[in-house]
């Protein structure tokens, strides 16, 4: 670090450039770096992978809280259900909270284009049930007969100031052809890329999901990893599945354990399958179930349960 790894010239008075991949060695110029590369390549790759794993598997940050009820928001509806908590009384354990498959991909979060806040579905449901739904639940802006054009116009104001949440939502509008906008996958990808660069975990997740379905599997893994490191449990679960498909079961179990501990039902199911195949211990399952129950309990409220029951009723109707 104090001298060029190739020619050993000391760094005193000389500007050395550190290897950005492994952060272990430095060079006085590009020529020395290129010459030393064959000797350094294996060490660099090994240490870079170690750094990446340390960042990837460290404890994720806390979930975003709803600004109304102050409860952590699950990434998807599947993480918040009224079924009984998991038990550890039988082997294998299958009695844990899981959601109706038709609800699995329904978002629990609504972006309010007037104030730029993410509001949980429970608070939106409670507000509407009180018949006080003519204003925004957070900023009280009047919302009577707001057209698609007006909503998009509000959204664009947040996009102009680089609000990552608004940019992600606008990308989703283009992807789904909502809000009066035409379906445009390339425009959606452009906006999601922009939101991801600003740190949006949901944008990284969207990029990972749809890259996997036809864009680029390497790009998909990159975005899933970025989302996972910012606390997106669904992305973490999908990463585990990708690793399992590649035969890296040790990595897969690590991802599923973190995702399940954050309240991801699919990850819990994957872990139980891994347990039945002898790929993880009963102690790991017990500890993860405890964390899973705790996370689900922290994300539940009567208002959210009521919103979920309403969704289930609408599906059965």
Question: What is the topological layout?
Answer:
Elements: E1 17-18, E2 26-27, H1 30-56, E3 109-112, E4 117-120, H2 121-129, H3 148-160, H4 164-176, H5 185-197, H6 201-215, H7 217-229, H8 233-245, H9 249-261, H10 265-276, H11 282-299, H12 302-316
Antiparallel strand pairs: 1-2, 3-4
Helix pairs in contact: 2-12, 3-4, 4-5, 5-6, 6-7, 7-8, 8-9, 9-10, 9-11, 10-11
Briefly say what this structure is.
The protein has 317 residues and is mainly alpha-helical. It contains 12 helices and 4 strands, in the order ββαββααααααααααα.
Write a structural description.
- With 317 residues, the chain is mainly alpha-helical.
- The protein has two domains: 17-56, no CATH class; 77-316, Alpha Horseshoe (Serine Threonine Protein Phosphatase 5, Tetratricopeptide repeat), CATH 1.25.40.10.
- It has twelve helices and four strands.
- The chain has a two-stranded antiparallel ribbon with strand order 1-2. A two-stranded antiparallel sheet has the order 3-4.
- A hairpin with a 7-residue loop joins strand 1 and strand 2.
- The longest helix is centred in the N-terminal third of the chain and has 27 residues, at 30-56.
- The chain is globular, with a radius of gyration of 23 Å.
- The relative contact order is 0.12.
- Mean pLDDT is 82; it is low at 79-84 and 86-95.
């Amino acid at each position: 670090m104090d001298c060029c790894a190739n020619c050993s010239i000391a760094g005193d008075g000389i500007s050395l450039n550190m290897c950005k991949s492994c952060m272990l060695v430095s060079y006085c110029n590009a020529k020395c770096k290129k010459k030393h590369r064959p000797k350094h390549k294996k060490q660099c790759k090994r240490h870079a992978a170690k750094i990446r794993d340390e960042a990837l598997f460290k404890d994720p940050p806390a979930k975003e809280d709803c600004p109304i009820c102050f409860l952590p928001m699950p990434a998807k509806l599947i993480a918040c259900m009224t079924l009984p908590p998991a038990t550890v009384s039988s082997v294998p354990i299958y009695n844990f909270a899981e959601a109706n498959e038709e609800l699995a991909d329904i978002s629990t979060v609504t972006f309010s284009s007037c104030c730029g806040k993410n509001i949980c579905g429970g608070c939106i449901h409670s507000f509407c049930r009180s018949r006080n739904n003519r204003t925004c639940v957070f900023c009280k802006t009047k919302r009577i007969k707001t057209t698609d054009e007006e909503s998009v116009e509000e959204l664009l104001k947040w996009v102009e100031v680089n609000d990552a949440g608004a940019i992600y939502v606008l990308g989703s509008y283009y992807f789904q052809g909502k809000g009066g906008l035409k379906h445009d996958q390339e425009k959606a990808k452009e906006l999601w890329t922009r939101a991801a660069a600003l740190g949006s975990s949901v944008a990284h997740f969207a990029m990972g999901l749809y890259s996997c379905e036809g864009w680029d599997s390497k790009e998909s893994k990159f975005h899933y990893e970025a989302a996972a490191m910012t606390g997106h449990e669904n992305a973490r679960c999908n990463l585990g599945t990708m690793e399992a498909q590649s035969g890296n079961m040790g990595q897969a179990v690590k991802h599923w354990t973190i995702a399940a501990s954050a309240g991801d039902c699919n990850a819990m199911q994957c872990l139980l399958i891994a347990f039945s195949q002898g790929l993880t211990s009963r102690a790991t399952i017990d500890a993860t179930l405890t964390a899973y129950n705790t996370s689900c309990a922290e994300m539940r409220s009567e208002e959210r349960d009521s919103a979920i029951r309403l969704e289930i009723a609408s599906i059965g109707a």
